[in-house]
Specification:
Number of helices: 29
Number of domains: 5
Largest sheet: 4 strands, parallel
Number of strands: 12
Helix content: 40-55%
């Protein structure tokens, strides 16, 4: 049951007219979406044996009861569920049940399953009965034993096939090309498989391994691979490994190039999580990789860096438009890189991609679409192709997913701060506090005071007041209850106002921050710091213009032996050809050239200008920091760029660097960021 359904039900209980066509206009949705909400709501009401909602001939919503509506029963129902509760359909319940049973070691009881799924015993038993056929069709047996519960009888291989099949079907195959899934149910499902919560981390590891091996999976195969690795690691941690005798069957795979990919990435992940990865699991993953599709070609390495920088620049622009630090979300950045790599390939080879979610995404998130469209011009010009609406709708899905996920996460930890004002003394106040516990998932009492002590209310930071008497001249919403006894109507009114106040706080994007950092807490990986050395830093250089600044940044690399002299002119030429896309965040430019233009080894120079100069960037001028880069391979580029975005995209960090008196103090400041915990 979603928030919209809750609001509809609440209004009906309060006796307020609700019409389906008016709701379509109110929420800017299609009629079938509202009808689906009503259907889901009725399914939930039925579980609680409450009268259902019917739609009359003229479109009015009516609670189907010949008797007076039992407001108290509905109140208990509403208070028992948060407005972000996801209601599962019958099919989804069965899918979750199957996933739980496949991921549980030993027997699981009916009572345990009831608690997880949240349905009656009879409903659960009916679902399980129908689920037995699915297990049989997939070469597994669901075994029941009195007083012990249920257990799946199947080989480890069949169990893994079953888990991946559930994820593939419910991911609808379309979401593999995006990395994020807007569907709440798919997120619920993957959490049942991914108990370690490492899915996003595995995305990053696969990207890194692709870069290292210079072997790039197609979108579908990429996310299929991420799921497989996530499953392998979760199973190993739970001591559910492939039997050793399978190693003999798969020994021939050791001669395959896929074996190298498999062993290197699993070794890397094993080291990170301090796991011993059995050889048989490496061979199993090699078999998984056999059926994957790969991009036949890719842009050359120098271009790969250009594309990364253009994505970084676009990401910062989009962050500025929303007032949200998307560029600090490394998981998002990494997935954008993964998707764009194959998107560029598709555009250059005129391969068409269709996104079945395009129309609904563009209708629901027009602002995101428009902002993305306006800020990817440099990338389109660079590759010589325009992104179709289908391609851009995938990008919309990335950002929309982050926004929606953050809203939900924030709401889970957010409560309306309430000041309780009572004129009749502490005893009555304590009684009211006890009654208000039914709303503890929505409100938090931060102050209990008398009418005359309004200063206490201000100090408490309350967003809302509950009072037994009217209060004049209040700047925040105040509800006056009918009685200190807080009857049913009072509770419903309080909840209604609290949710309305919360909507006002949360919308459109208030309170959403992605990994917001400060200089005392920031922790960078150090990829950029490792490229830098004190002899390639210059403080307060007086540049005549942007060409002079780039030229000098290049000379710092050349004098240290990192590049040939011709590399410097190539850096300037690239900016003249493609524009100032290298100015990726305020006051910071990353000039570079292709590896073929004379890179000897990977390095970075850092120059702080005495007087900032214009690079003719529409947003990030003037430039004070110029970071010359010589890149030979793409292996560590992602992390280096991310480090730079975190450092120079943060105003307070830039202020620290501004105050550095010499090269040594700049290195010391960067070292502090690298080692901070």
């Amino acid at each position: 049951m979603n928030r919209r359904s809750n609001k509809i039900l609440r209004e009906l209980i309060l006796g307020n007219r609700q019409n389906i066509l008016e709701l379509v206009t109110k929420y800017n949705l299609q009629e079938r979406t509202i009808r689906a909400d009503i259907k889901d709501l009725n399914n939930t009401l039925q579980e609680y044996s409450l009268p259902l909602i019917v739609i009359t001939g003229n479109g009015d919503l009516v609670i189907d009861s010949a008797e007076k509506i039992d407001v108290k029963a509905y109140e208990e129902f509403i208070c028992s569920r948060t407005f972000y509760t996801y209601y599962m359909s019958k099919n989804e319940r069965s899918t979750i049940l199957a996933m739980i049973l496949l991921n549980t070691t030993g027997y699981v009881t009916v009572e345990q399953l009831k608690d997880i799924i949240g349905v009656s015993r009879n409903t659960l038993l009916h679902d399980i009965s129908e689920l037995k056929n699915w297990f049989e069709e997939n070469n597994m047996e669901l075994v029941s034993q009195v007083r012990r519960g249920y257990i799946v009888n199947a080989s480890e291989l069949e169990i893994r096939k079953g888990i991946l099949k559930l994820l593939e079907v419910n991911g609808d195959n379309n979401h593999y090309g995006t990395g994020y899934n807007l569907g709440a149910f798919w997120n619920l499902l993957i959490r049942q498989m991914d108990k370690l919560n490492i899915y996003d981390d595995m995305c990053t590891h696969v990207v890194q391994q692709e870069e290292y091996a210079q072997s790039f999976l197609s979108d579908f195969s990429f996310f299929e691979t991420v799921l497989e690795i996530t499953l392998i690691i979760n199973r190993i941690v739970n001591h559910q490994v492939i039997p050793e005798h399978y190693a003999e069957r798969w020994i021939c795979f050791k001669e395959s190039s896929k074996y190298t990919f498999s062993s290197e990435i699993l070794e890397m992940i094993g080291n990170k999580y301090q796991l011993d990865i059995p050889e048989v699991e490496i061979l199993y993953f090699t078999e998984c990789l056999k059926g994957k599709s790969y991009l036949k070609d890719k842009t050359h390495k120098g271009n790969a860096l250009d594309i990364r920088l253009m994505i970084s620049e676009a990401l910062y622009k989009i962050s500025s438009c929303f007032g949200i630090d998307f560029y600090l979300d490394f998981a998002l950045y990494d997935l954008l890189i993964a998707h764009m790599r194959s998107a560029v390939y598709r555009l250059q080879t005129r391969e068409r991609l269709t996104n079945p979610l395009k129309d609904s995404l563009l209708q629901e998130y027009p602002e995101i679409f428009e902002i993305i469209r306006k800020n990817i011009g440099n990338l389109e010009e660079y590759i010589g192709c325009s992104f179709s609406e289908d391609e851009m709708s995938f990008l919309v899905l990335y950002f929309a997913s982050v926004l929606e996920k953050e809203k939900v996460e924030n709401s889970k930890h957010s409560k309306i701060k309430v000041a309780l004002v009572c004129e009749t003394g502490r005893g009555t106040a304590q009684f009211m506090l006890a009654k208000l516990r039914t709303l503890e998932e929505v409100i938090e009492i931060v102050s209990v005071s008398s009418v005359h002590n309004t200063a206490e209310i201000k100090r408490s930071g309350a967003n809302m007041i509950i009072s037994t008497i009217p209060i004049e001249k209040q700047e925040i919403p105040c509800i006056v209850v009918r009685s200190a006894m807080l009857n049913t109507d009072d509770i419903l009114d309080i909840q209604k106002m609290a949710l309305e106040v919360m909507e006002g706080i949360m919308e459109p994007n208030a309170g959403i921050e992605l990994d917001v950092i400060n200089p005392e807490e920031i922790h960078i990986q150090g990829a950029f710091y490792e490229w830098l050395s004190e002899n390639r830093i210059e403080v307060d250089y007086e540049a005549k213009d942007w060409k002079d600044a780039v030229n000098h940044a290049g000379e710092l690399l050349y004098k240290d032996g990192a590049v040939e002299e011709r590399y410097i002119q190539a850096m300037i030429q690239k900016i003249e050809t493609y524009g100032p896309y290298i100015v990726i965040c305020p006051g910071t430019a990353l000039p570079h050239a292709d590896a073929e233009e004379g890179v000897i080894y990977e390095a970075a120079s850092l120059m702080r200008l005495k007087k900032p100069v214009d690079f003719h960037h529409e947003m990030n001028d003037p430039v004070k920091y110029v970071i010359g880069m010589s890149v030979k391979s793409a292996e560590s580029v992602n992390q280096a760029i991310y480090d730079l975005m975190m450092i120079f995209g943060n105003e307070r960090i830039r202020q620290i660097l501004d105050k550095a008196v010499d090269k040594a103090s700049i290195m010391e400041a960067l070292d502090g960021l690298t080692t901070a915990k």
